[in-house]
């Protein structure tokens, strides 16, 4: 076997980077939970000062801060021995309600990895694992992971890209948000379009409970109703607008769910489908974004679908062609890609 020393060193360098990133995920979650990033926002502090400001142990904080500086997540002044944050680091690590908050992604990753022993067994048995069976960090991390993208794009660009939907929502429409989770997308719709009546449905009871509390805290519980229901059985009809955010590929029977959406919509209604960005051909997704989505799909999306009836297992990198097949098989006559971001594809389907 002929091994290229240069290629071996290159690959080992990739390994070191990946190993550091894996451990770094835990560091980010610790930093968020203890308020370490927020304490550094706009300030330069020594490890002792940071520990005092956050009520934590200085020795642990020093080690943590060093890991963050080594990874480029904090700045460090060797002369003053103070750690700090750039404006960009502050935006992404300390502003939880901002458009680019990233700690949730790491919480989602750690929660997903807790299922590795069971998913390993599933490789042998072919069994599924329901969304509700995962570590609670998955539910919280998922909401934090997706919410910034929704905050940045939903009202400003995604809704306006749909045919006449913005005007309907402004006048007052009946809306169903399917697979709403903890309600981030549902609440954003309710806040942006106060004349509309929004219904959020999810099959996970704990997420529905948390969504109701979030709506109360946001002051929109008078026009948002959260209810436990699956995508194939959510109640009501005559909806002007139905949305599904990053969850069609998780469903066991996406065609059945799409057919139910078709029946629930008005004849002039619209269905917005938000899915992870993906090309149709697998090899075209061999890039950093594809790597993230294929990994999460292995741990979360595919086993979730396999745990339900039919078990279609579209996966998080389904691509436009497969989503179109699902939508058209359910009886929709119109389907198009309305817009996109580096992380999402936004489709519009009409009866």
TrEMBL record:
InterPro entries per UniProt: Methyltranfer_dom (IPR025714), SAM-binding_MTase (IPR053173), SAM-dependent_MTases_sf (IPR029063), WH-like_DNA-bd_sf (IPR036388), WH_DNA-bd_sf (IPR036390), WHD_Rv2258c (IPR048711)
UniProt source species: Koribacter versatilis (strain Ellin345)
Domain of life: Bacteria
SUPFAM superfamilies: S-adenosyl-L-methionine-dependent methyltransferases, Winged helix' DNA-binding domain
Pfam families hit by this protein: Methyltransf_31 (PF13847), WHD_Rv2258c (PF21320)
Residue span, S-adenosylmethionine-dependent methyltransferase Rv2258c-like winged HTH domain: 25-93
Domain Methyltransferase: 170-330
Signal peptide: none
Name by which UniProt lists this protein: Uncharacterized protein
């Amino acid at each position: 076997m002929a091994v290229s020393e240069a290629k071996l060193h290159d690959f080992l360098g990739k390994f070191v980077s990946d190993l550091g990133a894996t451990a770094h995920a835990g560091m980010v979650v610790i930093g968020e939970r203890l308020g370490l990033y927020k304490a550094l926002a706009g300030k330069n502090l020594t490890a002792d000062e940071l520990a005092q400001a956050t009520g934590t142990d200085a020795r642990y904080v020093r080690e943590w801060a060093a890991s963050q500086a080594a990874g480029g997540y904090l700045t460090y002044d060797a002369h003053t021995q103070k750690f700090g944050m750039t404006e960009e680091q502050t935006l992404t690590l300390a502003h939880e309600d901002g458009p680019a908050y990233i700690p949730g992604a790491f919480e989602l990753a750690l929660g997903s990895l807790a299922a590795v022993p069971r998913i390993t067994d599933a490789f042998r048995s072919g069994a599924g694992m329901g969304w509700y069976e995962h570590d609670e960090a998955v539910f919280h991390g998922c909401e934090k992971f997706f919410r910034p993208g929704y905050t940045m794009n939903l009202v400003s660009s995604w809704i306006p890209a749909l045919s006449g939907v913005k005007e309907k929502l402004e006048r007052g429409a009946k809306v169903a948000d399917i697979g709403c989770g903890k309600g981030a997308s549902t609440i954003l719709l309710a806040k942006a379009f106060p004349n509309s009546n929004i219904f959020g449905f999810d099959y996970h009871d704990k997420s529905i409970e948390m969504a109701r509390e979030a709506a109360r805290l946001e002051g929109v519980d008078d026009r948002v109703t959260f209810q436990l229901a699956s995508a194939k059985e959510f109640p009501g009809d005559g909806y002007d607008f139905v949305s599904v955010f990053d969850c069609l590929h998780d469903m066991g029977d996406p065609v059945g769910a799409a057919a139910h959406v078709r029946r629930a919509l008005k004849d002039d209604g619209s269905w917005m489908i938000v899915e992870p960005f993906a090309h149709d051909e697998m090899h075209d997704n061999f890039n950093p974004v594809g790597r993230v989505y294929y990994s999460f799909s292995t741990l979360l999306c595919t086993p979730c679908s396999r745990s339900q009836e039919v078990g279609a297992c579209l996966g998080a990198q389904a691509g436009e062609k497969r989503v179109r097949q699902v939508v058209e098989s359910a009886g929709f006559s119109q389907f198009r890609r309305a817009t996109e971001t580096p992380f999402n594809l936004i489709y519009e389907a009409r009866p």
